[in-house]
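Sorry, explain these tokens?

***
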Amino acid sequence: MKAGVITLTVNQAQKSLALGSEASLLLVLRNDFELNSPKYGCGLGECGACTVLVDGVAARSCVIPACGVEGRDITTLEGLGSPDRLHPVQQAFIEAQAAQCGYCLSGMIMMTTALLSHNPDPSDEDIRRELSGNLCRCGAHLEIMKAVRRVAVLMRQQSAQGVVT
């Protein structure tokens, strides 16, 4: 275990931390940055509860060493929007009531955000494929699909009108 000081940029804020090489990004986000949206689910990168964006790409923070993302832009659910100015994906999930227990919600929202950034007009098959690695044990899949379809339409309309989200 070799320790070192690294600087991470999370939700546009930088923090220098002394960490061992085995420290996962998930634990650093939760313990050092005090962010609660990425959840510890399986610890194997298979359930999606810990999903964050690294340089805009969805990534499983439980299996990424924190030292491996130094110099990269990390975004959690807290960095997408704020309570008074929600990101369109957050707003769509609320409007569709796409959560029951909410444990998977952050990961679903982050995956949806990543999906829509590279595919603004996804088919139902595209949505299912992209979200298939994010497990929802409550069965809110229909509401989640509804939210993703709705936000895709809204974001395309906003883009056509020149609105920046």
Summary: The first helix runs from residue 25 to 31.
